[in-house]
Amino acid sequence: MPSEQGLTALVGGMVIDGLGGDPIANGTLVIDRGRIVALGKASAVPVPRGTQVLDVAGRSVLPGIIDCHVHSTYRARDMRAHLLNAPTYNVLRSTHILEETLACGVTTARDMGGADAGFREAINEGYVRGPRLLISIVMISQTGGHGDSWVPAGIRLQKRAWLPSSVADGPDEMRKLVRSLLMAGADFIKICTSGGITSVTDSWDEPQFWFLDEECVDDMIRRRIWWVPTLALVPQSIGRRKIDKAWSSQQLGQEDDKEAAIYRAMQKQLPLWQDAVRRGIRVAMGTDQSHRLLVGENLIELDFMVKSLGMSPMQAIVASTSGGAECIERPELGALAPGRIADVLVVDGDPLEDIRVLGERSRIHLVMKDGRPYYNRLHPVP
Ligand SMILES: [Zn+2]
Fold first, then answer.
1. Are 27 and 80 found together in one domain?
2. Distance from the alpha carbon of residue 2 to the mean position of ligand 1, in angstroms
3. CA 296 to chain centre
């Protein structure tokens, strides 16, 4: 997608840079050919003649959100519908998930299984509206693990028919699978280290290739390993299950029991998590958004980060912007700073006062990616 040509300036808003710097009241942000070229107090940043000026007074301006854990492609949750849908239907339905993810403010997403290079390229070339994608193509697991679609009927029920097999046992098979995924354009490799909620043949808490414990936290802090906790999904799913009677019977795994057990384990872990954050574990935002839940509601995760991890709103924003960029090794993203790619959100209200404003879709007034406005309710100043 070519960047928007020419200069654009957002003026009068409160600018939150995503790096943890003090917010700039009545700030000006200048964008040129998809990159940020200047920001600062309005009195200190001149706006060149001929610039398209957008008045964002009374609103907050922040970097586009980076969701480090999504599944952006569709498959029917209902097993009967899944078996009756053509693979192309799933691909075409995925465009809605991608559009909604961008529209709620996620400008970059790390897809942890489901999207192949075609999705990434169609977005980059502008045929589909969506966040910039980093892809793993599949999630690698052992035979019988979370990524193995085997069912007791003796067949493998592939969830997304455009993907290669994700099962590998032992170093040689693993090496070969990783090579073929990199060949097919994977940006990174995802490995399932435990069972999962949706899988039939494993338990969510069995270690396969772990739930966080103290030793693990120590190790992660020492080795500066990123933690992407995905906190909103399980509570949201439990809530959905209460109001939607069909929800529990649409899948093969014992999702309701697993979710209740995970929720209990999560509550017990809160002190460990909050201590890990105080001690400086590196946290990046991720939702585990999928066809199941959180599509277009990704930014409610920040409220969960504040409540569950004891983060300040500023910490949650940094973890969702420049922190995410570091986690996915894309230093040109995730901050409002000269030279960075112009992924920008304009939001009604002050997320530093109340982080929940970010999760309200009606408050998102502009989503800009690569300097190009995708969803824009702002009016240019004549
Ligand atoms: Zn996931």
1. no
2. 31
3. 10
